[in-house]
Amino acid sequence: MARRLPPLVALRAFEAVGRLGSVRAAGEELAVSHTVVSRHVRNLEQRIGARLLRPAGRGLTLTPEGTRFLAQVAQALDLIERATAELSAARRRTLTIWCAPGVASRRVLPRLPELEARLPEQEITLLPTLTRPDFSRAGLGPDGADAEIIYLERAEPADGVRAELLSSPRVFPVASAAFRARYPEVAAPADLLRLPLIHEESTEQWERWLSRAGVTEVPPLRGPRLWHAHLAIEAARLGQGVALANAVLAGEDVATGALVEVVPSDIRLGGYHFLAAAARWDDADLVLLRQWLRELFGTPKEIGA
């Protein structure tokens, strides 16, 4: 029996308008005039016998029928896009991993050949970034993440996304041995306020750490902001001040003496999490990736399954 489907061009026009909330924006995305987009949407509404969009201020909003229809159309277009990407790729499949820069360079990269050996059919793409991915585009080229490794205070539940805690390491202040030797009187967390502190993108992490360490009055903090944890740790190794580190990023430096822990503490501010689309959580490549990361980071703990 022949399928009774609306024209694909009309479905694409409606999906773009529904997603963007604007006929003009949809036309720009589809590289056609807004009048063509409007005509496609009107024809689609006539074809299915339902009103899908209605005016809202200077834009458009979905009707209840349009909301339900958009969800199904978007899912169908995603499936078509994914199938096209899989068939048109002349090379091996790509597994794209978005990763916090420090973890990428200090933890994942040194042992990346191990992962490649476990996934010989995959082309591994490791993207060091603090930008959060859109998992709805997983497997759809370099802009789509198949998995994410990120440091978070906690992994908040999100629609269509699952998370697993890989490690919740202790966070502690570090400096070079030569720098530490210049301040023998430093013995408690409050003493650190007299030293040059090295920050990531803001002073927030140091403020949280000092508060958790029992420092009741934390003054406005100063010091260089280096944005990335691994850069802050490297600055500490070069003797430029005190940075906050953990065993995942600085364990080897502490073991070799390149860095020393300035004051003892037992504070945890979050952890490294693995995130992926719930629909792909049990895909063989992601299962193998998670198993490898568990070995790399330690005993995992499932969150919000």
UniProtKB/TrEMBL annotation:
Molecular functions (GO terms): DNA binding
InterPro entries the UniProt entry points to: LysR-type_TF_proteobact-type, LysR_HTH_N, LysR_subst-bd, WH-like_DNA-bd_sf, WH_DNA-bd_sf
Residues of the HTH lysR-type domain: 6-63
Keyword Transferase among record annotations: no
Matching SUPFAM superfamilies: Periplasmic binding protein-like II, Winged helix' DNA-binding domain
Superkingdom, taxonomy of origin: Bacteria
Pfam families per record: HTH_1, LysR_substrate
Alphabetical keyword list: DNA-binding, Transcription, Transcription regulation
Family: Belongs to the LysR transcriptional regulatory family.
Protein name as catalogued: DNA-binding transcriptional LysR family regulator
Species this chain originates from: Inquilinus ginsengisoli
